[in-house]
Amino acid sequence: MAEIAHPYQDTAAADAAPAAAGRQRVSFSELVEAWAVRESADGAEERYQKLRSAFVHDHGEITDSYICESGPMAVAVTATPPKPLERKLLRLKDRIEMHSETERLVRMHPEVAQVLHRAEVQYVSVRNALRGLSQRLLVNWLFVWMRDLMLVSIPNPDGTVLPLTPEDIEEQGKELDRIEEHYQQAASREAQIVYLGGMLGGVLALCAITVPVGILLAASEVPVNLTTFFGCLIAGALGALVSVVTRMSADKFHVRHEVGRSYVQRVAAFRPFIGGVFGLLVYFALQGGLIRQLDVPEDPRDRFAFFLVLAFAAGFSERLVKEVLRSTDGEEPQATPPAPKTEPGAPAPPRAGG
User: Fold this and answer.
1) Angle (deg, nearest 10), helices 261-287 and 318-327
2) Which of 39, 52, 269, 346 is most buried as measured by Cβ atoms within 10 A of its Cβ?
3) pTM above 0.90?
4) Cα dihedral sign, 206-319-316-296
5) What does the DSSP assignment read for 75-105?
6) Cβ atoms within 10 A of the Cβ of 132, count?
7) How far apart are CA 262 and CA 215, in angstroms?
8) 3 state SS of 154
């Protein structure tokens, strides 16, 4: 880790016992404390190296870091490569994490506690909502912000601590505002990608479910054309998928990324099932004669294409399904009679009760 030349006055190192031979979970605070006292006692350097190896084993290689002996205060960024199982699942991006030790910073400068809390909350959001390049860029941005805050908080050579001015705090807050603005944009795009991936998974799951269902229906005496049945089911699911992609392209589809990636994926996976159900609903409504406004073709090929197009439209637009359900009562919506026109200069018709 990078060293900043400020003498560490507290030499309380004798109470640090050597680490156990076996691997242990090491926090970043323990690692920073071991680094600060690594030259002040026998075996301290060896203990620091052991703790660092354990920390790297758990959190990945330290790609960037800053540590100040005045405190000590430190911040570091680590990168963990994907595991073999994650590689098989095509998760090829490193997991980026930021670690900080700011207890001494808050003690010296209580005025930075609020902006520091904002930065930590922002980091948690970045870590959970983003992946890949967007995550790396914003984590590095937060790392630089934290490092600069520590730099301006270092005590004077004589040991005196000057509080940060309100202008300094305001400037730090503005920088966090810029980070949050970029995060919102990146998280919105990431949520759409996660949603689309969840929908693709839902389509694949629906296709897998149709196989055993088709076997059961083929063994029974259900008076349903199985080819048309499963065609409408898949067409409705694809209609829902195309609807989402179309609205994403037109920037009319927004996902709440605050709820988390797993929740977005689960909700998206159900969307193809809903589209498939709507496709089947239109198919059965037409097959059962509930919708008399449309004439079903007699030719088998034409019937298949007719049902698939309507099933796709039902999955694509929920409004179509509502109109279909509304039309099953056989009543046409009554048109509102036009208002009577008056000649120029003619008296207006009298009001009722006037």
Assistant:
1) 30
2) 269
3) no
4) positive
5) EEEEEEPPPHHHHHTT--SPEEEEEEE-HHH
6) 14
7) 32
8) coil
